Amino acid sequence: MKISRRQMNKARIEMIPLIDVVFLLLVAFIFFAMSMTINRGIPVDLPVSSAAQVEDKDVSEITIEKGGTVFFDREEIDTRSLHSRLALLHRESPGTRIIVSGDREASYESIMSVIDAVKRAGISGLSLKTESRNQEMGTISEDVVRYRQ
Prior knowledge:
- A 6-stranded mixed beta sheet has the order 3-2-1-4-5-6.
- The longest helix has 21 residues, at 15-35.
- Helix 2 (79-92) packs parallel to helix 3 (108-120).
- By secondary structure, the protein is of the alpha/beta class.
- It has a domain at 60-146: Nucleotidyltransferase, domain 5 (2-Layer Sandwich), CATH 3.30.420.
- The chain has helices spanning 15-35, 79-92, 108-120; strands at residues 60-64, 70-72, 75-77, 97-102, 125-134, 139-146.
- It is built from 3 helices and 6 strands.
C-alpha cells in the first residue's frame, strides 16, 4: 500500500485584505485631519484684511450674524445682557481677550454696539476676526486683527 504525501504549498501574502486595510487607514487619516480644523463660533462671511495676524492666546469669541444676532461663545445673547456677561468675565479673569467676528454684511451699528459693550466692561484685549488674502498663493485664510483704541 502506497501512502501519498500531501504537497505543501508555499505560504503567500493575500493582497486583497492588505489593500482593504491600507484604504481604511487612509480614510481614517483623512477624517482625522479634517476634524483637526478649529471652528470656534457661528459661521459668518468675514471681511478681508491684509494686516491680519494670528492670535495664539486663549480667548472668548463674540459673533455677529448678518441679521444682527449676537452670539457670545456660541450662545445667543442680546446686547444688553452682553455687557453684564463681559463684566463678570473680566472680574473672574482680568486678562481676558475677546475676538469679534462680524459678518461683512452685518450692520455697522451692531458691530459698534458689541465693541462698546466690550469697552464698557473694562476689557482692553479686543481683536477683530477677518480673512486675509495671500496674493501670491491665491488663498484666503481666517486671521485676527488687534483692535487699537
